[in-house]
Amino acid sequence: MQRIAEFSLVSYKQFAAACERDDAEKIYSAIKVPERATSGSAGYDFYAPYSVSVAPGESVKIATGIRARIGEGWVLQIFPRSGLGFKYRLMLNNTVGIIDSDYYYSDNEGHIMIKIYNGGDKALDIAAGSAFAQGIFLQYGITFDDDVTAVRNGGFGSTGA
Question: Is residue 22 part of a domain?
Answer without folding.
Answer: yes
